[in-house]
Design goal:
mainly alpha
Length: about 130
């Protein structure tokens, strides 16, 4: 089995909208990024919790609004956290996908940031519900 085949086999099956009418960036986001983020979910959460602790933030005691603010700030301003997340995703890409991402890095980085923010927010809210 080649590296590309192995990577593709690791991605979980998820329901995705019909991507035929989407632009190429939206297709990449739905067909490739969403399954990778699902696969990496537990690692993303552990990384987030570790970074928050390292910053001395008692996340569980924050208000819902403040938690959302911390999550957004972590992804927007904590370059180490953001770069590790990007690396986790890039490491799961085939060579062709990586080449495409690098050619569209700015837009994909923006979309990836929003997806990670929403993923962490929804799961930290579920945990505290």
């Amino acid at each position: 089995m080649t590296r590309n085949e192995l990577l593709l086999s690791l991605r979980p099956e998820i329901e995705i909208p019909n991507t035929e009418e989407m632009d190429e960036t939206a297709q990449f986001t739905n067909r490739i990024l969403r399954p990778i983020l699902k696969f990496q979910n537990e690692s993303i959460l552990v990384l987030f919790q570790t970074e928050v602790k390292a910053l001395g933030i008692n996340f569980d005691e924050l208000s819902r609004f403040k938690k959302q603010e911390v999550i957004r700030e972590m992804m927007k301003k904590n370059h180490h956290f953001r770069d590790v997340i990007l690396g986790m995703v890039m490491g799961m890409l085939t060579e062709e996908e990586l080449t495409w991402l690098l050619g569209n890095r700015r837009e994909i980085s923006r979309r990836l940031s929003e997806m990670v923010i929403e993923r962490i927010k929804s799961q930290t809210e579920e945990k505290n519900a």
